[in-house]
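Dear support,

I submitted the protein below through the web form. The confirmation email said the job was done, but the results page showed an empty box. After a refresh the structure appeared. I'm attaching both so you can tell me whether what I see now is the final result or a partial one.
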Amino acid sequence: MKKEGAVLVLFALVFSSLFFLASAAEIKLSKEVYQPSETLQAEISGNFLEAVTPENIHFYRERNVPVEYDILKLGDRYLLYALLPSKEGNYTLSIEDIRYEESDVVLEKNIAREFKIQKGNESYLTINPGFVVAREDFYILVESQESRQLDVSFLGGKQTVDLIGEKEKKIYFSVSNVTNYTAANISLLSYSIPVLIFPNQSSLIEETLDFRFNPLEFETAVLKDGKFTFVVAIVNFGTKNVTGLNISYNSSLSVKITPEFIPLLESREKQFINFTISSNKTGNFTGKIIASSSNFTAELGLRVMVTENKSELISFINNSNGSSGYIEEKGCAELKGVQCREKEECNVGEVPSTDGSCCPGACIKSSNGDSSWIYGVILIVVLIGALVGGSIYMKKRQGNIANFLKKREQKFQDRMSPSPSPPSTEVRGTLSKI
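What the results page shows now:
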């Protein structure tokens, strides 16, 4: 009897531990140490009470750092990939503001997993995306730090691709022969990229409109009365092309955005947006950069500190760990650049420095510069046209008046000098009595 009781207790302990493991929320990484700019792959599992969205995902290196990533729900788990930063150090992947259940207890604690970015000697790739949902032929973007030949396997077929070091290459795949839902993998080097194939006739997958800013939030600092240009990306993670994308801002700061309109952002395409911040007031400011197309909107939260103290700006940059938009805490001259003057623009795109926007190339005359001379030329042309037209009109009018007077004079002469009467005819005959 005691033996049976012990067995039951052991069974209960094993069952409860298995249940706990099955219901525990966790993040599984493909490895613990990654190379700079390598693609991270992760699997997220747990008894989540609500969907995990990109807004719940955060990457930290002491502070929040911008990382391009995407997440996909697959049954009772999630797949996540991220294109890691190039800066080495200790990082944390965190899932936040999400409710999940463990051992019949509802929790809302952060789920975190630490990893390291450290340069090593092993070969690695940057692969975008880190998973694929396909209903037609597709491609992935692959970049290697060195030139090499790469063997790629998919659906039983193989291809060899030549990669040029530090240059992105498109690798194409066909799913035209797949007629049913299929889960497959692309194998290249030591990576395995999940591919979920939904044939064209399948109703299991819908076209989605999903574009997002990268990063989702942007925190930086600028000097008062300076002009500071930063760069963010907008990425189309959806399966539909985005047309007519308007970029605007909502902030008490002066913000100039380039471009303000993107006519087409194709599926999985990324475009960069420059925004220039300036302010004549000090303090902490918040705002939003907004991208909108049709009924879909994406927002980038802005937090900006405006200061008059350059040492305070440099301290902020040092503590931001590369997340403030600055390359490093250097002035424009130290970055071997120049600051463009009014009515000038940089031929290669400006970068932020502790002095303000810095041009690492050459300053050229702005194509959108002072156009007042154009209006002056137009005004002169209009005036000349008016004078010529008026002259022609007056000459024509004077000719009409002369003709009119001449006709009146002729009529008067005709009246005063009547033409002679025709000669009278002699009448002959006798008068008769009636």
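Response: this is the final, complete result; the empty box was a page-load delay. The chain has three helices and 33 strands.
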